[in-house]
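[Discussion] Sanity-checking designs against the backbone

I'm trying to build intuition for which residues belong where. Below is a structure token string of 427 positions. I'd appreciate it if someone posts a full sequence so I can compare it with mine line by line.
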């Protein structure tokens, strides 16, 4: 199967920066076969006219909980502890695996429609996110959330996580991390056990870290250390780690994160909405830490839109630090693309438009008010676009959305099932 995107504006990497220019992109099977020069024997089954279009690498949502799409707009304007323990947890207990499947489908539709092609998901119900991924055509890194205190290799959550990894046989668009939930929900012995399993089986770890002030205060009181030190001492950083949030990190914590090559995923909208604060992204970048971008779940963010995250990340850092130069449009674009791919150990196959990489692409319309005039397209992605400009999405060389129409799933069926779930659980 061949797809030709002809004479479109596209954002391609040039060294350590990205540059917009006019290009033709040749796709064969699941990969970008060539840029600008037609490969020998190439046969285009589909030709996409690139006039008035911008092609970008598919965005990467490096931290979310897609099943939480069911809980959109039902736990708002609450403190973090009230939100988590008194509102979200009770709702989660009512959700079945089938509910999680429909919630994940809803989240994935929203991501595709706003240009995201890859996401990193921490979920509770095994096989349901992966089932939804198989159907939508997205690329995903998935992990079952793990909580516990004692080291127990027969722990049912850990066994479920390892069982779910067999779903990788469904498609090579699926990969897996182990997902210990957070320092406040995992004892040191449990964390050490998970880290040992990750090391033995060559898996990365995805964990919430230093998200709120209460977590940091309790960690200091109970263990005389920071959350970052607690996780390090349990051996978690001995494997590749993507740490979500990292709001309450000291200078010494940042040194620890850098020394262990931890990737940090900042979730600016969710963190602001819950009143948890703003991650010190300029300091993290200055230290040479790989910073990427995530939405968190729709229960705390209310959206799964990475354009919204790029916009808010660039703006909130400027506001907090009092300088427009601290985090720029080009930097947040990289956070939402190649940095996320590197964090998820997918940097060799996605995250940028390059020959040989997977054809994971989003095509935006330029002939819409939000993108006119086309002065600085990289700046436009952070400061002007809202996601509605995304017209067509290609993942793994397959068109999964064309002219805003989903090609892989029945949207109306998903909306119908979500309404039934909300009625049943009293939302």
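Best answer:
Here's mine. Compare freely.
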């Amino acid at each position: 199967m061949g797809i030709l995107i002809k004479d479109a504006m596209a954002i391609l990497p040039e060294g350590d920066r990205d540059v917009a220019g006019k290009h033709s992109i040749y796709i064969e099977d699941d990969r970008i076969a060539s840029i600008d020069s037609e490969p020998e024997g190439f046969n285009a089954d589909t030709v996409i006219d690139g006039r008035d279009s911008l092609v970008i690498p598919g965005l990467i949502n490096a931290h979310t909980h897609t099943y939480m799409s069911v809980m959109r707009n039902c736990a708002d304007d609450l403190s973090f502890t009230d939100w988590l323990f008194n509102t979200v947890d009770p709702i989660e207990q009512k959700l079945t695996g089938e509910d999680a499947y429909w919630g994940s489908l809803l989240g994935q539709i929203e991501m595709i429609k706003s240009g995201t092609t890859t996401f990193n998901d921490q979920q509770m119900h095994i096989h349901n996110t992966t089932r939804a991924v198989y159907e939508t055509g997205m690329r995903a890194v998935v992990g079952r959330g793990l909580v516990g205190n004692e080291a127990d290799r027969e722990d049912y959550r850990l066994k479920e996580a390892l069982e779910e990894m067999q779903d990788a046989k469904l498609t090579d668009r699926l990969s897996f991390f182990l997902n210990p939930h957070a320092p406040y929900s995992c004892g040191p012995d449990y964390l050490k056990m998970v880290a040992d399993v990750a090391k033995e089986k060559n898996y990365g770890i995805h964990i919430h870290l230093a998200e709120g002030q209460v977590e940091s205060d309790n960690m200091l009181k109970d263990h005389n250390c920071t959350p970052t030190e607690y996780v390090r001492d349990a051996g978690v950083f001995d494997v590749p780690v993507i740490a979500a949030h990292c709001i309450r990190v000291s200078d010494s914590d940042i040194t620890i994160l850098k020394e262990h090559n931890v990737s940090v995923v900042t979730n600016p909208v969710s963190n602001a909405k819950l009143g948890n604060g703003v991650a010190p992204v300029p300091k993290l970048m200055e230290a040479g830490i790989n910073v990427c971008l995530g939405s968190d779940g729709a229960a705390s963010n209310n959206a799964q839109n990475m354009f919204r995250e790029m916009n808010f990340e660039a703006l909130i850092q400027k506001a907090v630090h009092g300088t427009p130069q601290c985090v720029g449009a080009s930097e947040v674009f990289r956070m939402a693309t190649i940095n996320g791919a590197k964090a998820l150990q997918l940097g060799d196959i996605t995250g940028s438009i390059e020959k040989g990489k997977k054809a994971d692409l989003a095509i935006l319309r330029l002939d819409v008010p939000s993108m006119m005039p086309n002065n600085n397209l990289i700046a436009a992605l952070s400061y002007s676009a809202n996601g509605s400009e995304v017209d067509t999405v290609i993942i793994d060389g397959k068109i999964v959305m064309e002219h805003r129409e989903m090609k892989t799933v029945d949207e109306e069926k998903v909306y119908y099932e979500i309404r039934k779930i909300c009625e049943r659980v009293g939302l």
